[in-house]
Design a protein that fits this description.
With 436 residues, the protein is α+β, with helices and mostly antiparallel strands. The protein contains 4 helices and 12 strands; from the N terminus they run H-H-H-H-E-E-E-E-E-E-E-E-E-E-E-E. The chain is 62% helix and 14% strand. It is rod-shaped, with a radius of gyration of 56 Å. Residues 332-422 form the M23ase beta-sheet core domain. One of its GO terms (molecular function) is metalloendopeptidase activity.
């Protein structure tokens, strides 16, 4: 049956009569000193190992921070590209809107021109009727002139005047008729020319508008393609940004884990320092006892200490067993959880010595107790308050503190652990077999 150093810590420190050192022989005391020194060397090795782990962790944290900075710069660059892309898309959308307005304006113009064409067609139709009637009238007049010898008819009208006044009147009438004939001819020719010009103009405008409309449609199609390309680019950049953000989140998670690990190492180191201090105190007491025993020529048998067994610990608190020991989806649970209202009393599961009473980032208010008679350590975590201090001897059932919700805890409860020998991280064993 293994006897570790903490058996002798309690033997030398606890004044509650667990072991009577007056009965320990000089030979036994010398052996215990050797064991204490061996345990102290083991603790020194553990502290050195923790220091090495801490330095390695700090290097990892520094490397992680450098990676985060690099990724952050990449994300900034991508965000800048995203901003530029969005501005380009906005500009293209404005161009598309302007083009659509152009198309609408051109379609309006085409509609107006078509209406104008319809109007011109009606005018042309009317002009053709007038031209046709005028041509008929002119042909009749030409035939009449030709049948009467050209201008002789006009001469007969003039020469048939009865007097001078009648002569003047007839001459004026003939001139008026001749002027009208001339005006009719000029108007006829001008109207025919105007009609042809308008027909040509309308056709030209129709061709011009159709050409412009085709150009605008082509431009619109081009802009739509550009917008599609920009949207695709934006989607790609968004995916890249999401990937970078994911990477950043992973790096931050790793950083948080490393920081937590670093804190845990620091806490472990403090626990080991506390235990080492208790061992050093025990060793000094053992040396003093050995010197005292050397002055005597008597001997006595060494104390026999139990290494533990079934039902050696009392339940540390009233409440409901909310979580048992074992594997969980988010990790391993190294103890029991007893849920109860804040302020419920927590007692020590057995007599022992307090090897740590402090606030932990993970355990919150926590007390560690070593039980030399069983070579076991118990842990009481997440307390709202602590009632005992480091190095204090405690009896079975003595109040250690009250249930709370401190540290990394979700709801008021007591987290209770049992360890073989001294406490070590992830060294907790199932408490159930040891509870009464």
């Amino acid at each position: 049956m293994k006897k570790t150093v903490y058996m002798f810590i309690a033997v030398l420190i606890i004044g509650s009569g667990l072991v009577d050192w007056q009965k320990v022989s000089a030979e036994s005391a010398s052996q215990k000193i050797d064991e204490l020194e061996e345990k102290q060397n083991e603790l020194d090795d553990k502290k050195n190992n923790l220091n090495s782990k801490k330095n390695n962790t700090e290097e990892k944290i520094e490397d992680n921070l450098n990676k985060q900075e690099s990724v952050g710069n990449d994300i900034d660059a991508i965000n800048q590209q995203l901003s530029e892309t969005r501005n380009k898309i906005k500009s293209k959308e404005s161009e598309i809107t302007a083009t659509n307005n152009e198309i609408k304006d051109l379609e309006k113009q085409i509609k107006e021109i078509n209406q104008k064409i319809d109007q011109l067609k009606e005018e042309i139709k009317a002009m053709r009727e007038r031209i046709k009637e005028r041509e008929k009238m002119l042909k009749d007049r030409l035939r009449a002139i030709q049948s009467n010898g050209g201008n002789m008819k006009y001469m007969e009208v003039i020469l048939g005047s009865r007097n001078f006044g009648d002569f003047i009147s007839r001459t004026s009438a003939v001139n008026t008729i001749m002027d009208q004939d001339k005006n009719i001819m000029e108007e006829h020719m001008a109207e025919k020319k105007l009609m042809e010009e308008k027909k040509v103009e309308v056709e030209q405008k129709k061709d011009e508008i159709e050409q412009k409309k085709a150009e605008v449609e082509e431009k619109k199609a081009s802009l739509v393609n550009q917008k599609s390309e920009l949207e695709s680019l934006k989607s790609t950049l968004d995916d890249q940004a999401a990937e970078k953000e994911k990477l950043m989140a992973e790096l931050e998670e790793e950083h948080n884990h490393l920081e937590e690990y670093k804190m845990s190492l620091a806490e472990q180191k403090q626990v080991l320092n506390d235990q080492a201090a208790v061992i050093e105190k025990a060793k000094k007491s053992a040396l003093a006892q050995l010197a005292k025993e050397k002055n005597k020529n008597s001997s006595s048998s060494g104390a026999s200490l139990s290494a533990g067994g079934s039902g050696i610990f009392s339940w540390p608190s009233q409440g409901r067993l909310s979580s048992t020991y074992g594997s969980r989806s988010l990790g391993y649970h190294y103890g029991l959880d007893i849920a109860a209202s804040t302020g419920t009393t927590i007692i020590t599961a057995a007599a022992g010595v307090v090897t740590r009473s402090a606030y932990s980032t993970s355990y919150g208010n926590v007390v560690y107790v070593y039980h030399p008679q069983y070579n076991k350590s118990t842990v009481y975590a997440h307390m709202s308050s602590r009632s005992v201090g480091y190095g204090q001897n405690v009896s079975a059932g003595q109040k250690l503190g009250e249930i709370g919700n401190t540290g990394r805890s979700y709801g008021a409860h007591l987290h209770f652990e049992v360890h073989n020998g001294e406490w070590s991280q992830h060294g907790g064993i199932n408490p159930m077999p040891f509870l009464k």
